[in-house]
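ARCHIVE CARD
Drawer: 12
Card no.: 0347
Subject: one protein chain, sequence and derived structure
Cross-reference: see card 0346
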Amino acid sequence: MQLVDRLVAGDRRALARVITLVENGAPEARTALTLLFPRSGHAATIGVTGGAGTGKSTLVNQLAKEFRRRGKTVGIIAVDPSSPFTQGAILGDRVRMQDLASDHGIFIRSMATRGSLGGLAETTGDVLTVLDAAGRDVVMVETVGAGQDEVEVCRTTQTTIVITIPGSGDDIQAMKAGILEIADVLVVNKADREGADTLASQLNALLSLAPRAGWQVPVLQTVATEGRGITELAQAIEDHQAHLRTTGKLERDARDRVRYQLLTLARQELMQRILHEHGANGSLERLVEAVLARDIDPHTAARRLIESA
């Protein structure tokens, strides 16, 4: 496939084109992914999540610059909410990362969620594979930022950064479990605000109640708009990556990610098959009517859909 050959050779337009094919579910995308997958598995993958307004994009921007200073090439997947009309990304993180555009060692792609839950788009994992196969040393995935339920990113990346900020209720939110349980590195951003030290102390206290075996989750303070604390954050990420490699957890986690990805893809494939086959012949609607009439229960109807798919 000529497009894949151009991508592997470093053609940025080919890279952008392949990602577009993957996002749109084009027939050529599966061929491209089949060819590219053997070349993947080398990038350090980092998820960045946290509530809206925590400064994720600014932090990712600064981290990208720091990794470039360390001689690494960077890919950024910025997941945004979708337009209800065009299904495109509403916010467009590339607008907020324009100062990175001139560096060809950084490739930024905004993705729309297109209705997917959990903070990521349905094809985020495949786009990550493409960037990995394209030779990016580091691939960062920035989630939507919708709130406490954004845990999907930890099933997609190796290192997960959770960002909080002092004030605006984030110190209270920090006391909730949920999203904090996925953190490999905790960041208190906008640390020039009042209450940053208190929030950091609360997070450390919370972590002490449920210590992570073999890895002490660091709580770092940053002011991303000024670049403060970014060097320490990048080092914490590299330390975590080293921990994964030396303990064998990198391979174990990879196995879990592949298992989850296979089940997710199988579920999507089954759903598409059901909608295509049963939607076309009207059997889906007949089952809907049968359930409404209480002639059949939903579980039995669902099983019939699966068995005949």
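Annotation on reverse: The two ends are 32 Å apart (CA to CA). Residues 1-38 form one domain.
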